[in-house]
Amino acid sequence: MVTLEAKADDRPKVVPASLKDDDVPRADREESRSPVRWVLLGVLFVVMVVPIYLLVVNAFKSQQDILDNPFSIPLGGLTFEHMSAAISSPQFNVIGGYGFTLFLVVMVDVFCILLAGPAAYAIARSLKKRTQLVLLYFLAGTFIPGAAVIIPVIYVLREVGLANTVTGLIAHDVASTLPVSIFLFVGFIRTIPVDIDHAATIDGAGRYRTFWTIIFPLMRPAVVTVLILNSIGIWNDFVSPQILLSPSSGHYTVTTAIYAGISQYSTDLTKVFPNLLLAVAPVVIFFIYMQRHIISGLTVGAVKG
Questions:
Q1: What are phi and psi of 33, to 5 degrees?
Q2: Alpha helix (H) ranges present in 19-71?
Q3: How many CB atoms lie within 10 A of CB 126?
Q4: Which end of the chain is flanked by fewer CB atoms within 10 Å, N or C?
C-alpha cells in the first residue's frame, strides 16, 4: 500500500494581521504616524480654505454684515441680491469680460505654442554651448517678477505704436509665458529618442516638418500642461490688463471687474466680493478638473534632462 503524505510546505499558511505591518519599513510607519506631519497638513489646510470661505460667504452678505464680522453667517441667511446685481451691473459687463478674457487666453496660447515649440526643439537637439546659454537666458526670465518690468514694457509699446492696444497686451503676455513654456518643452523633448529624428531625415523630412508632424504630436502631455498653466496665469492676471489697457480702450478682463466697486473715497464690498467670486470660480473648477494633467506634464520630463 502506498501512502500519500502532504508536505508541510504545501499547506496554506495563514499570516496574522499583526505580522503584515512588518512588510512596511519601520521608518515609513513612524513617519506616517508622526503628529508633526498632521499638524503641518492641518495648518496648510486652514491657510488655503479660510480665504476661499471668506470669498464665498462675503459674496452673499450685505456691506454692514461684512464689516461687522466677515467670518460669520448672518442670522437672516445669505442673499443672492448682490451677486445678481454684480452680474447685471451697468458698470461692468460680466459676459463681455468673460468673452474678452477667453479671447486673450486663446490668442496667447496659440502664439506661445507656435513660438515656444520650435525654439525648444532647436535647443533640445543642439549640443552647442551657445545654445545652452540661450536656454539659460530664457530661464532667467522666470525669475523676473512681471510687475517689475511693466513700466519698461509701457515705454517699449509706446515706441512701437502698440500702447493701449489689445495687440500690445497680447504681445506682452506671450513674451511673459515663453520662458516657462520653453523650459518645459526642452525637458520633454530630451526624453524623446533622437533616432526618431534620424529616421525622419532618412525619409526626406526637414527639421521643420519633423518637429510639427512627428515630434509635436508626441509632446501632448507637455503641451497640455503648458496650455493649462498659461491659461490660468492669463485669466488671473490683473496688473497687465489694468495698466496696459486704459478704460478708454473699451476692453477689460474679468479680473479688472474688482475696480467696479472701488472709488476714490470708499469701497463697496458688495461689488468687490461677488466680482472676485465670478473671476475665481471658473479657473478653480478648471484647475480641479485638469490637475492630473498638470502633475503628469510637469513630472514627465524630470527623469531625463
A1: -95, 5
A2: 26-32, 35-58, 63-68
A3: 13
A4: N
* pLDDT (tens digit per residue) in 30-52: 555 678 888 898 899 889 899 88
Picking from 51, 79, 107, the residue at the C-terminal end of a domain is 79
Cβ burial, residue 251 (10 Å; 0-12/13-18/19+): buried
Angle between helices 150-159 and 166-189 (to 10 degrees): 120
What CATH number is attached to the domain comprising 158?
A: 1.10.3720.10
Which has more pLDDT, 109 or 302?
109
Residue 119: all three cell numbers together:
525654439
Return the pLDDT at 294. 67
In this structure, the answer to whether residues 59 and 203 fall within a common structural domain is no
Lookup: cell for 194: 533622437
Dist CA 121 CA 135 (whole Å): 11
Mean pLDDT of 172-190: 92
For residues 64 and 127, state if they share a domain: no
* Gap between the Cα atoms of 58 and 273, Å rounded: 6
Asked whether the predicted pLDDT for residue 19 surpasses 60, the reply is no
